[in-house]
Design brief:
The chain is built from 12 helices and 9 strands. The chain is α/β, with parallel strands linked by helices and 342 residues long. It has a 9-stranded mixed β-sheet, with helices on both faces. Helix 10 links the parallel strand 6 and strand 7. The longest helix is centred in the N-terminal third of the chain and has 18 residues. The protein is elongated.
Length: 342
């Protein structure tokens, strides 16, 4: 039986088929703010959320680029060690060092203190290709399919995206396509209730069937955005990777050209392993965007530079906290400013 969850108590849903959903149309409205207390601005929250990365990377760089130190081979060796231990990755680190060394030769720099600003600019240039805000308005419904490993934060990300799109005046429908994890459907229901959006799920069955039903319901109701959850899986679980490819094929069957966005959700705590996840899921699905979550709980935020060098897929959103407002579009300069001491 397919279930349609709403934010207010409602009679039990009637049985339905993918062709004729039982739930009545719901007009989503933004949820009331949880607290009337003033919150920090986004730049401040970002800086606060990236404190652990800043302490590891920025703190060491401040010592390295101290006043009075001269630029020499030893300084570059120390800088290489700092960047690699901050999960920037070998390739990205070498790219940054090459850029700095060229600048030193070109401008005849001698003081280490001159390199901090140069490093910031080099890092911004490296991350800039990842800055590409997602526009969900070209299609209606716009289908976003979310993928990732277990525990990356897909379901929570869906809830936050639902709120974000509602604040833009868009209607949203959620598809509970994670039919493997016992609590996934209930967790998505909670987010649906918070945001006052419909959740379409199925107690038993395939992920592809649930998402197909959700798309048909969204078309019938004139919904703007469908957020489709999928079960977490490791890239090494080949049968599950084949299953998620099937989900994508079913979505395309429902709407030619869909999904319009394949979002890979990455847990920032995984550091360099995130690069391997990006490669594997991109090879399987053709990932079009990334969401980097849990940056507030890790010192490994430098891994975004490794991703930029290895597989520069746009980072659509980053998450630096637990609340619905702590997921925002990625901005390269804001991010770099937040990981360097003022």
């Amino acid at each position: 039986m397919f279930s349609f969850f709403k934010s207010k108590p409602a009679p039990a849903p009637e049985p339905s088929t993918p062709e004729q959903p039982a739930a009545q149309a719901v007009t989503p409205t933004p949820a009331e703010p949880a607290s009337a207390q003033p919150r920090l601005g986004w730049a401040q929250r970002l800086k606060q959320g990236l404190a652990k990365t800043r302490d590891r990377l920025g703190g060491q760089l401040s010592g390295l680029f101290g006043v009075g130190r001269k630029i020499d081979a030893e300084l570059f060796e120390e800088l290489e060690t700092i960047l690699i231990t901050a999960d920037v990755g070998v390739d990205a680190t070498q790219s940054l060092l090459d850029t700095l060394q060229k600048k030193v030769r070109r401008e005849n720099l001698t003081e280490a203190s001159d390199l901090q600003a140069a490093l910031k600019e080099a890092l911004v240039d490296l991350l800039a290709p990842l800055q590409a805000p997602l526009d969900v308005t070209p299609h209606k419904p716009f289908i976003l399919m979310l993928a990732g490993v277990n525990g990356a934060g897909k379901t929570t990300t869906i809830g936050k995206l639902a709120k974000l799109y509602q604040t833009q005046g868009l209607s949203v429908l959620l598809a509970a396509g994670d039919t493997f994890r016992a609590a996934a459907r209930e967790q998505l229901q909670v987010w649906g209730e918070r945001n006052n959006v419909t959740v379409i799920s199925q107690e038993k069955g395939e992920s592809a069937a649930v998402i197909f039903d959700a798309i048909q319901a969204a078309r019938a109701r004139g919904i703007d955005v469908v957020l489709a959850d999928t079960a977490g899986r490791l890239p090494t679980q080949l049968h599950l990777m084949e299953e998620i490819r099937k989900v994508k094929r079913v979505i395309e069957k429902a709407i030619p050209g869909a999904p319009h966005e394949v979002l890979l959700v990455l847990d920032a705590n995984t550091g360099q392993n995130a690069v391997a996840q990006v490669r594997a899921f991109d090879d399987a699905l053709g990932v079009t965007g990334l969401v980097l979550t849990k940056l507030d709980g890790t010192a490994k935020g430098g891994a975004i530079a490794a991703i930029a060098k290895a597989r520069p897929i746009p980072v659509r959103y980053i998450g630096v906290g637990e609340t619905v407002d702590d997921l925002r579009p990625f901005d390269a300069r804001e991010f770099v400013d937040a990981i360097f001491p003022a």
